[in-house]
Amino acid sequence: MTQEKRVALVTGGNRGIGYELVKQLAVEGFQVILTSRDVAKGQEAAQKLKESGLEVEVVGMDVNDPESIRQAVRTVEERFGRVDVLINNAGVYLDEQETLLTMEPALVERTMATNFFGPYHVLRSVVPLMEKHGYGRVINISSEWGSMREMSERGAGAYKVSKLALNGLTQLAAAEVRGDIKINAVDPGWVRTEMGGPSAPRMPKEAAESILWLVTIGPEGPNGGFFRDGERIEW
Ligand code: NDP
Asked: What domains appear along the chain, each with residue ranges and CATH number?
């Protein structure tokens, strides 16, 4: 690797855990691409970071739209030539009070579109670029609710199956990639964001700290694993 800054791309980087990941990666000296489905919101977040002396690049990316993903990755390739780190963070949780067989099917489809097909299309666009350079670290922000044992508990079915599918994607993609590319999934814990709500015990800063070790693992590091706070957890 050259002396150039490593390039890290975060989806849904304008708020919540994604924003904190962007911030910490910038502090660590990465060239960070903050992606947001709403560029204005992304720029607002970047301005906030600028006030603390951190420069990040903003690129629009709606993970529900494969063309928007391809365009964003093309833009990043043109400007920076590479993506060394990808964090699939953007996600939605739409079915708190619902059950899978009775909820509006559109809720299941929208949840799958963002939480599964989003990371799937982002991976399809970014992995070839990583393989070209022989290096990449991918973190899929999943949830313990996507683990198999959660499927026997009623409730939040759309969210749970979307994260279960993301976990499957993590393992399959990890087995398929060539070169020094590591693809892992993490559970960030219950985090105080718009999604996690005001009662969540963990702050985004701590959640991001518990995730970012996976960015700097070496060639012998884990690939295709599921982690919380640095420990392996059950699929
Ligand atoms: P927030 O609701 O606070 O933030 C979600 C982010 O995802 C926002 O930036 C949002 O953008 C973005 N997003 C949603 N849909 C899209 C889309 N179609 N395209 C691009 N960006 C999109 O959630 P958190 O920060 O809490 O969650 C981040 C990740 O962590 C998610 O994957 C979530 O499932 C996971 N997680 C969170 C937990 C928690 O307790 N908070 C627990 C376990 C996992 P916009 O501002 O435009 O809406």
From this structure: 7-232 (3.40.50.720)
